[in-house]
Design goal:
The structure holds 2 protein chains of 2 kinds. In chain A, helix 1 packs antiparallel against helix 2 and helix 2 packs antiparallel against helix 3. The longest helix of chain A has 23 residues. Chain A is 71% helix and 0% strand. By secondary structure, chain B is an all-alpha fold. Chain B has 2 domains: 133 residues, no CATH class; 109 residues, no CATH class. Chain B has 12 helices and 2 strands, in the order H-H-H-H-H-H-H-E-E-H-H-H-H-H. The N terminus of chain B is likely disordered. Classes of the chains: A mainly alpha, B mainly alpha.
Chain lengths: 69, 279
């Protein structure tokens, strides 16, 4: 499960994220420039395992908007 | 862009329809009623354009901040790569220095990925609605649409004209190749070209020193550069097999994106494009 989810995120990072940027006309998604949400999720899954890692990732995506600092 | 809704499904009160199909359809019918009231010909085609612009305008605040921040970030790019070079291996100092640099240049990357992700279902819903309605048969139009409209004033009394400047919106360029001739190839060509212009504006060719990152991010970088060419070709091919009504939606969508980029980058954007053409 862990390696599957890592693979899934990697595929997203390389292919889908680029396609999405092209479609939506945005060159970058992230406000935290040092670590993107997908990279963060990947690292958390490696560190804490699939469930806690994904939870942290989802939490971060939801928190990543202009209304929450 | 997988399955489209089948006809009987469009009137089903499923969650997808209630949230992502019917609202768009109602705005579309509203646009159509206004445009046909003022007597504009090809009102359906223009309604598709109008609906797309409305949706893009509503979504604009979600992307605006992002665009501003990424424009400024591009400007400090060279400085950032110098910082990366200097603080190689010391990620903590690098992060502090990066934040300092951003502060100096007034960069507030305040948007984030959620506002971007929110747009995906909307774009997909719009795509679904349009691909369904352009394929409706004349006798189904009034009956199906009137089941979905929220207000009595929006009800259609007669079927709408499904052509746009003589071209049927529900047909694909590949269907029309034999009847219209080679000229129909212009539609996929224009669609691909507009997409290319937008992609080029988004990811101008890299100048200056390359940042030395990990292997994977290098690959992502290469893929990004390649996509600037591959994606427009892909979109061009897709639009050859998609109903014209969808190409109309897609091109309006892209043109809006190009204008958005132009407003962010200013005259520099035109200069970049000229540079590409010269090569």
């Amino acid at each position: 499960m862990r390696s599957g989810s890592i693979l899934f995120i990697s595929i997203y990072q390389i292919f889908f994220s680029t396609l999405l940027k092209n479609i939506l006309g945005v060159s970058s998604f992230c406000r935290n420039t040092s670590l993107s949400c997908s990279e963060y999720t990947k690292k958390s899954i490696l560190k804490y395992g699939f469930f806690k890692g994904s939870y942290l990732g989802i939490k971060r995506v939801i928190g990543c908007n202009p209304f929450i600092r | 862009m997988a399955a489209t809704l089948s006809l009987d499904k469009m009137t089903d009160p499923s969650i997808f329809n209630i949230l992502l199909a019917w609202p768009f359809l109602n705005i579309l019918v509203f646009c159509y009623q206004i445009l046909s009231f003022i007597g504009l010909p090809y009102a359906l085609g223009f309604s598709i354009i109008m609906l797309t612009i409305i949706i893009r305008l509503v979504l604009y605040p979600l992307t605006a901040q992002q665009l501003k921040a990424s424009k400024k970030m591009q400007d400090v790019g060279p400085k950032l790569s110098r910082l990366k070079e200097r603080h190689k291996g010391d990620s903590k100092t690098l992060q502090q220095e990066t934040m300092k640099l951003y502060k100096e240049h007034g960069i507030n990357p305040a948007s984030g990925c959620l506002p971007i992700l929110v747009q995906i279902p909307i774009i997909w819903g719009l795509y679904n609605v349009l691909s369904t309605i352009v394929k409706l048969k004349p006798n189904e139009i009034v009956e199906q649409i009137n089941k979905i409209v929220y207000f009595d004033q929006l009800r259609l009394t007669s079927s709408w004209d499904t052509t746009f400047f003589g071209l049927p919106l529900g047909k694909t360029p590949s269907d029309l190749l034999s009847s219209v001739g080679l000229l129909i190839i212009l539609i996929p060509l224009i669609t691909g070209l507009l997409q290319f212009v937008q992609s080029k504006m988004l990811f101008p060719s890299q100048k200056g020193p390359k940042t030395s990152g990990k292997k994977e991010s290098d690959f992502a970088q290469i893929f990004q550069t390649q996509t600037t060419y591959i994606f427009p070709i892909m979109i061009g091919f897709l639009s050859y097999t998609f109903p014209l009504g969808l190409s109309l939606y897609w091109n309006t969508f892209t043109v809006f994106g190009i204008i958005q980029q132009y407003k962010m980058q200013g005259p520099q954007a035109i200069q970049n494009l000229k540079d590409i053409l010269k090569r």
